[in-house]
Amino acid sequence: MASTSSSVGALAAVAGGEVIGDATVTIGDVTHDSRQVGPATLFVAVPGENHDGHDYLDVAIGAGAPAVMVQRRCEVSAPQIVVDDTRIAMAPVAAEVHGHPSTRLAVVGVTGTNGKTTVTHMVEAIVAASGLVAGLIGTVHTRVGGNNIPNTRTTPESSDFQRLLAAMVESGATVVAAEVSSHALSMHRVDATRFAVAAFTNLSQDHLDFHGDMESYFEAKAGLFDPDRSEQAVVWVDDPAGARLRSRLQIPCLTVGTDADISATDRDVRVDSSTFRLTTPEGQRTLTLPLGGGFNVDNAAVAAGCALMLGLELDDVVGGLASFEGVPGRFELVSENDPVQIVVDYAHTPAGIRAAIAAARATATGRVIAVFGAGGDRDRAKRPQMGTAARAADVVVVTSDNPRTEDPEAVVDQVMAGLQPADTVYREVDRRTAIYWAIDQAVEGDLVLILGRGHERGQEVAGRFIPFSDRLVAREALSVKRGSGR
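The structure corresponding to this sequence follows.
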């Protein structure tokens, strides 16, 4: 991967820091992870929740780091750049080392509580339909030109983010669609990145364990749309937070929604496809998206706005959406020609659960059976609200999600607090048993929604990572049901 060589002194100037030691040492990469250190790699010591990078300085230097960046002067053998805040300084330093890649391609940043993954994948599909090479950075996939690149976070740390953008430039990408989480914005992971388009999907309760309250959560999202960060915006204005955001924007904006610049009307939404009329400033088209759920029609309209802001043709927008292959675990139909339909979706917020159940209700001829739980060590206040949201289903199955370090029974108790005695509820902490039960109970015309984990391939229980895929377990349970003739 190509990078530009920078001296320690030049990087200190970028970071506003002080050099202790040889300022002429050359740097060709930046990392915050001592395990990624190689020759010419600047190691940035970032204090974290569980570990402090300053404790790994000797490890990094021993692995070949010719210099380090720290928040306090340390007794080490390598030159050091001393800054006030290494996390804040890391982004502009990484961007400098990698030649400011976001200025050499069009980066589309998508933020919002729900829909980020689907919108970025749709933008990728539209860009590919236009004949260009697309990059993608997000929760399910990070890839360029269809080739996957390992990634562990929705939005990587700034050192990794800038390296990924540089790799995508080198691979010929001209557009990169990136999910931008509120954590990433608050923790400076996308600082020093220039976004050609910033898109907003929606805002509902999530991550309040991190942000504290909805206002702080909103302000974190709104930070993506600062004129110093983004050139243009696409905003879903049917959401009150989107309308509020639009009213304060200082950059050109395309609105998306019922009465907006871009709208999706005349909808015929089924469990595996959606036909609708897309109206844009560039004209109107009727198309069929091979993906169910009314909220995915909304996502498609937002993706269309992003593409049009990039200057792509409306025919390419239609072609990309019409050939869209979907996203693993995002309103994914995992049954086949079965009497019952099984859908796996990532919905893990009250609003997401309501939307998924509403989408199922619009297509099912029988009952909607919802299987879900709440994640441990995360926003506890939303748990009873998730239970309340699930009351829209005919049958509610409350189970574990990723308990992490919490007692699964206690997490289920908190979800159950949002339900009422009159609701039809089945409680089963073991997720596999719960999924099997729901599918076994389903009869012809019913639709079983398995919510919360989507594409995830493992379950975090008591600090252990246990292989577990909702999609695979659902298919196993369905196979058993077929074999029983039920």
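The CA atoms of residues 261 and 281 lie 6 Å apart.
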